[in-house]
Amino acid sequence: MDYRAQERASERYVIALGGNALIPPGGRGTAEEQTSTVASAMGRLAPLVAAGAQLVITHGNGPQVGNLLLKNELAADLVPPMPLDWCVAQTQATIGLAIQTALEWELRHLSVSRRVVVVLTRVLVDPLDPNRLRYTKPIGRRVSAEDAAALADLTHHYAEQPGGGWRRVVPSPEPAAIQEESEIRQLLEGGAVVIAAGGGGVPVEVGEDGRLFGVEAVIDKDLTASLLARRLAVDTLVILTDASGAAINFGTRSQRLLQRVTPSILRGFQSAGHFSEGSMGPKVEAALRFVEAGGRRAVIAGLDDAAGAVAGERGTQVIAR
Predict the structure, then answer these.
(1) Does domain 12-310 have CATH number 3.40.50.2300?
(2) Is 71 considered catalytic here?
(3) Angle, helix 221-232 to helix 280-292, in steps of 10 degrees
């Protein structure tokens, strides 16, 4: 696998892995399935590390946190349900462990000695953010209208979903600051591969006494990855998902994959409504924020195209000029 080693050596990347991309198509999400899929993903990233690149890896957790919420519901009569911020923290640990173990193994086979470190990451949100009170982000399983009415209470909200069924919905505020930013930077500068900000980070606010407390919300993972990439001043943000890139006229005969595009043109397509808020929209916004803030390049690509995405040959390449 050619990552153009000399060109990529010493460059810094934030690699964002989608939660759905970590479960095989049609899979049940078992530990064995996810371990195998993560191992395959790390097999694609290890040569980049071997070439000398510095990596921060973020990841999604949508299917995984949904499974934890389902366990909460099914076992509520036996054990106390855990709050959403705890569930996000749990998935940071389990998915982070899988990525850490797999990448260490792949690097060992390449005779590369690099530390791989998982950082449990909290992300501050602004209590005055209008999105803080908008219940728009669906999480967990689909249920009937009757079950939704039975499950809903003063703190849990449900909404009918396109395609049928009801799902729990929570706020999705903007990521304002990454609490462990300095620790992530120190580890990166010390030569470690850092796994951080899983699931968009554990959402927290600052209480009146100065203490941090978790909130029942979900932060978009790609927007957090973009913020982290900007704060660390990395060279490239790479968003790997289950799609081959960003396409205009999606789902029609005139669908076209955007391959190399400037921020201004991409903003135009965004304004025209080409990218769904539930899927490609946040990825496009994350890429735009990074490049518009001075980042060299942002890429949206399929997980299988990781090598080509980094080399500038696959996916949607967002470049300032």
Answers:
(1) no
(2) no
(3) 10
In the chain, the amino acid numbered 315 is G
Looking at the predicted structure, is the pLDDT value of residue 124 above 80?
yes
Beta carbons within 8 Å of 285's beta carbon, 6+ residues apart: 222, 223, 226, 270
Active site residue 19: yes
Q: Where do the H-state alpha helices sit in 52-166?
A: 62-74, 84-109, 145-151
Nearest Cα residue to 88 out of 119, 122, 117, 132: 122
Grouping H, G, I as helix, E, B as strand and the rest as coil, residue 140 is strand
For the chain, which residues make up each domain, given as ranges? 12-310
> How long a stretch of residues is the chain?
321
Hey, what's the torsion of the CAs at 309, 313, 314, 320, to 10 degrees? 70
Burial of 81 (0-12, 13-18, 19+ CB in 10 A): middle
Q: What mean pLDDT is reported for the chain?
A: 92
Using DSSP, state whether 210 is helix, strand or coil. Answer: coil
Can you give the pLDDT at residue 20?
64
Q: Over 90: is that where the pLDDT of 181 sits?
A: yes
- Of the residues 18, 137, 140, 295, only one is catalytic, namely 137
Number of other CB atoms surrounding residue 118 within 10 Å: 18
Q: pTM (2 decimals)?
A: 0.93
List the catalytic residue out of 18, 72, 221, 245.
221
Per annotation, catalytic residue among 200, 283, 302, 315: 283
Task: Determine whether 312 is an active site residue.
Answer: no
